Amino acid sequence: MAPQAKLVGVKVLDSGGSGSFAVVMAGMQWTIDNRYQYNIRVASMSLGAFGIIEWTSSEEDSVNRMANDMVYNDITLFIAAGNSAGRGTIGTPGSAEDAITIGALDKDSSIAAYSSQGPTEENRVKPNIAYVGSDVMSVAHNTGDGYTAFSGTSMATPGAAGVAALMLQANPDLSPFEVRNFMQETAEYRACTYMGDAAGIDGCDDNDAQNIITKNRQNNVYGHGEVRALESVLAAAEKYYVFDSSMQITIENDPTHDNSHTHLTPKDSIEFTTSGGIETIQWRSNHIVDDWTILHSYEKTDTEGHVSAIDIIHQLEHLPGIDLDGNHTISIRGLKSNSSGGHSSSPLVTIDIMLMNTASAFMPESEDTPGFTFLAVSVASVIALFVNQRKLESNSIYEKD
pLDDT digit string (tens) for 291-318? Predict the structure, then answer.
């Protein structure tokens, strides 16, 4: 779904698919605590209290609160609706208010018979949206390179999460709520009686008049409808600027050692080239939302440039709770004026970096450096002049006496 995205596995269930309340909570908290180190912007969860996992009512409430807390910490959380079929079968954590709960579709875009439906115990309308989950090709474990087909909301959820990853690659300033809103608004609406299937009718409210009006509200079968990936990504990309793919930025640095992160010391830079008439370059780190830094060293006639590691360090040094040494993600985009009087933006490019030896950026210059030598000579000269001046003054005094 999102080839440039990287996966962070957080294991909370055993090989049999069961897990304790404490382990699930610990895994969710770990994701929050490590969101900056690994640039975690999207999470996909496929577990629930119905079936193998049995939690108390208090534990379910705690997991739902933790799910909402993940969203408040800028993690767009997708949760499988479940495979219990029928009305009112969406449980924890899919019932969490701020999570994006995903229903499963068959290949013909109708709701899968197994897909859990709302409302939740709190009478909240769920799911939020639906994605294809039946007969999805996936890797077959213990085969080396084999594939097999699986069905379930656990297959639909990571697909929808992949769309969100593409949206955030296009516009990393999006909040989880904006991701959800864009996906819901661009979804292809499905009335709960779509295609007249029994599963859909079972999830409809009695005497439901919603099918008379096109896309008038979310329902407990399809939510806001079927996810439309391209429309969601374009909506994200064009929130602030007109998207222009003719402008391109190419990162010239090669990943170091681990084939993932580019290692930078304070003396290094992120090097890039541009094409398509880019007039302005902006960059930002993943720790800062809605705050882009203009690269003033780049002129509109340039076709190459660099973002220095020292500038990145100085941007991050005052942020609380951020370790300078370690992993960071830098996003770069290009802008130019367009015929409508506004600006167009290039596709975003990102580079994962590892800052190293950042303490050296704050050390005073060595005595061996020319600057220090010049300062020492200058000071010595001032002292010498001062001494000579004092001698002249003394001689003058003696002469007057």
Answer: 899 999 999 999 999 999 999 999 999 8
Instruction: Give the span between the Cα atoms of 38 and 344, in whole angstroms.
Output: 30
Q: Check residue 215 and give its pLDDT.
A: 55
The angle at the Cα of 142, spanning 138 to 144, to the nearest 5 degrees, equals: 75
Angstrom distance (rounded) from CA 13 to CA 175: 29
Q: How far apart are CA 138 and CA 145, in angstroms?
A: 11
Which three-class secondary structure string do you get for 88-103? CCCCCCCCCCCCEEEE
Structure tokens at 363: 């050390």
Q: What is the pLDDT of residues 15-58, one digit of tens each?
A: 777 778 899 999 999 999 999 888 899 999 998 654 445 678 88
Give the span between the Cα atoms of 225 and 117, in whole angstroms. 13
> SS3 for 104?
strand
Are 70 and 43 a contacting pair, CB within 8 Å? yes
State the Cα–Cα distance between residues 383 and 365, nearest whole angstrom.
23
CA atoms within 13 A on the CB side of 288: 16
Extract the tokens encoding 27: 């895994």
How far, in Å, CA of 50 to CA of 151, rounded? 18
